[in-house]
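Ticket reopened. Same input as before:
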Amino acid sequence: MPTQASPPQAAPASTEPAATPVPGPAAIETTGLTKVYGGRTVVDHLDLRLPAGVVAGFVGPNGAGKSTTLRMLLGLVRPSSGAGTVLGVPLERPGDYLPRVGALIEAPAFYPALSGRANLRVLATLSGVEEGQVLNVLETVGLTARADDRYRAYSLGMKQRLGIAAALLTDPDLLILDEPTNGLDPQGIIEMRELIRAIADDGPTVLVSSHLLSEVQQVCDWLLMVEAGRQVYQGRTADLLAGGSRLRLRGEHAADLPALADLLRRRGLEPERDGAALLLPDGTIGDGEVAAISREAAGAGITLVELARTAASLEERYGALVAGGVR
Amino acid sequence: MTRAIRAEFGKLRRPAPLVAVGAVLPVLTVVATVALFATAGNDPDSGPGAVFGPSLGQLATAGGLTRGFSATSAVLGLLVLIVFAVLTANEWNQGTIRLLLTREPNRIRVFAGKAAALLAATAVALVLALVVSVLTAYVMAAARDVPTGAWLTGAGLRHAGADYLRALASAGGYGLLGLSLGILIRSTTVVVPVAFAWFFPLEHIIQNAWAGAGRWFPGLLLDAIATDGTSGTSFGRALALGLAVVAVFAAVAAVDLRRRDITG
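Engineering reply: fixed in the latest deploy. New output:
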């Protein structure tokens, strides 16, 4: 399968902005990847392309097909149809690429009666990795002090970190983390976010699956979005969010609102009401026009107490994409 | 394959397998050996010893040294079957199968390594059980005034070696059946009662109603291997057919393992 660059893209049914093309090789690329279980299509013709070197969020609600897709990429589940490559190697040959891939799939699973260190030793032995690497990854995830405690005595956060340590054992070029913040408390989520960032700084391509959009927004610079097994968007996080940014205007008095709305309509704009404020799509309004609006409002006796560009949240953008007729 | 075997040995440090394989087997043989000597009578056709096993006179022969060890073979086999099945199905129950197969995508290699490591552990545990049984036999022989002069002779050691190898072949067969069932059923809560029910009461109940069961049922064939054949099945037939049945189970499990998605 070719690995040439192709532009990030929104799904055909959406009306989202075209993102900037990203050159370079793909860490993951699929064409028409599909999985059907008993007549139910769980993953529906996914055409994914994940550029090497990014920290990507694989986003979608529970049941969107994220885990099944990841399992297909890891050779655990056989695709019903479609093709793909991981690190340039066809999916049919997982033995050739899995040594360069680290993965944490769903909840971390280890042998409860073994210590964290012993669990990692089992995996290191199976992978043909030196004992020293066990110590390295324990240090990376901050578990050295508790390495000899039994796994069953670990907190959920420690279990997740051990799962990431296991994924890092082979010093992978591609790290796949499936819902790594599941069940963590706020502090644990923050620590996990920092850990993922620190790992990504060392060079591997990271794919983080999550249904927590706010988390993904903070960590990931690339997005693969799915809904009901189908692709919704793929591209830079910044491109997606920029497409949803808006200009927010609010006068000193609530009674100013109708006059302010009329003023904007006379300029050919279509404001939306948001409580006591008005919102305008930000994409086509330059700074000069913003200044003109401010002057015109002042001339009309309206004192603007709020005139700001607001970035859309990933949650809002995801909602807009899904509502845009992806289904 | 070597890596898979070594990784499996790493897992065997867990207390449950250690206790099950390393301690229970010797304890069972001690109990069986004590019971065998304690209940043996002077006349082979009288007393409770006639029901359970040999007379005191038979225990004094070259084969008497390991009679206690051999008497436990069926129970040992069942225990090995359950241990193998649980350790295999647990990979799915615990979700560790995902970890293993992302580190070693060759599924057959992973489970061949598991089988090899568990069989090696079983062989060691059986040696331990044999040694403990022999020591117990000497203690009980002293207590029951059984002459032991024939035990440590060439014939006696050949008997002991043959008993060990038969027990190993039987337990190995049970173990591979357990591993195959673990792969096919993938649930400890299902595989344990299913395996226990079939190989312990059901096969024997059916055998009581149909004498041919002993010639065909896998558990009864494996028991016949351990006991050097039965009145209805020769050792050779039990060995050939028993291992053939095990091979069929293993082949079916291997095909299932290669084809089925890992969704748990």
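The CA atoms of residues 30 and 135 of chain B lie 9 Å apart. Residues 46-51 of chain B have pLDDT under 50 and may be disordered. Please confirm and we'll close it.
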